[in-house]
Amino acid sequence: MDSNSIKKLLKKVQKGELSPEKALQNFKDLPYKDLGFAKVDIHRAIRCGFPEVIFCAGKTPAQVFNIADQIIRNGADLLATHANREIFEHIAVKHKAVRYNEMARTIVLRKSRRKKKGLILIVTAGTSDIPVAEEAKETAEIMGNNVKVLYDVGVAGIHRLLKNKREIYAARVIVVVAGMEGALASVVGGMVDRPVIGVPTSIGYGASFNGIAPLLAMLNSCAANVAVVNIDNGFGAAYVASLINNTK
C-alpha cells in the first residue's frame, strides 16, 4: 500500500463509502503481509519511495505469484527480477497486463504514473553486457525516470563512445555496464561532472574470474565520480541512479 492508496482509503471513509472497521482491517496488514513462506513488505513505498521488488531466483512460480499478487492487490507497481518465462506465465494467468522482458529477465506491471524528471543514460561496453543493462533499463523506467541507452561503445573502439557526447553530457546520472577489464566506467567518469555508477558483469575470459576483474578495476578507478555495485546488478545500479535523479 502506497501513500496514494492510503489517501484513497481515508477519503472513502470520509465519504461514508467504507466503514472504519473495514478500513482498520486494511491497516492491520501493515507493516507486512505474512504469507508463511514470505512476509511481503506492502508499505515499503511509503518508507522508501518504491514498492518491494521480487528477486525470483530460488523461488517457485507459485511463491512468486503469491508475493506478486499481494503487491498488485495493494495498488503498487510490480517489478520482479531474475524471472523466467514459467514464472511470468504463472502471474499472467490472473494479471493480464504484466509484461516480460526476456533479455532482462524482468516482469513489470506499472499501475502508477510517476513524473519523469532528469535523464538516466545506460551505457554498455559490449553487446554481451546488454542483458544486465536491460535489467537496469526496466528498473529505471518503472521508477519513473527518462531513460536512454547507448550499447556496444567499449574502449576497444573508443570512437563509438566519443561520437555520442551529446547524450553523455545530457544525462544527470550514467550507469556503465562492462565486463572484461571494466575500463569503460573510468573513461566515462573522466568525461563528465556527474555520478557514474559502474556495473561489472560476469562477461569475459577466464582471467576475468566471472566479473571479479572488472569489479576490482571499477573499485580502483582513478575517476573520483565512479561508484560501483555488485557483479551483474543492473537492478541495484538503476535503483541508486533513480534516487539520485529524483533528489531535488
Describe the structure.
The structure is a single chain. With 248 residues, the protein is α/β, with parallel strands linked by helices. It has two domains: 3-109, no CATH class; 119-245, Rossmann fold (3-Layer(aba) Sandwich). The chain has eleven helices and eleven strands. The protein has helices at residues 3-14, 20-28, 44-48, 61-73, 85-92, 130-142, 159-162, 165-170, 184-189, 212-219, 234-245, and strands at residues 33-34, 39-40, 54-55, 78-81, 99-101, 106-109, 119-124, 146-150, 173-178, 196-200, 226-228. α4 (61-73) crosses α5 (85-92) and α6 packs parallel to α11. The mean pLDDT is 90.
Could you provide a short overview of the structure?
With 248 residues, this protein is α/β, with parallel strands linked by helices. It has eleven helices and eleven strands.
Helical residue percent band: 25-40%
Please, what is the average pLDDT? 90
Beta-strand content estimate: 15-25%
CATH topology of the largest domain: Rossmann fold
What is the approximate shape?
elongated
The Rg value, from CA coordinates, equals: 20 Å
Give the topology string: H per helix, E per strand. HHEEHEHEHEEEHEHHEHEHEH
By CATH reckoning, the class of the largest domain would read Alpha Beta
| Tally of individual domains | 2
List the total number of helices: 11
How would you classify the helix and strand content by structural class? alpha/beta
| Major sheet details | 5 strands, parallel
| Biggest sheet: strand arrangement | 8-7-9-10-11
CATH architecture of the largest domain: 3-Layer(aba) Sandwich
- Low-pLDDT stretches are none
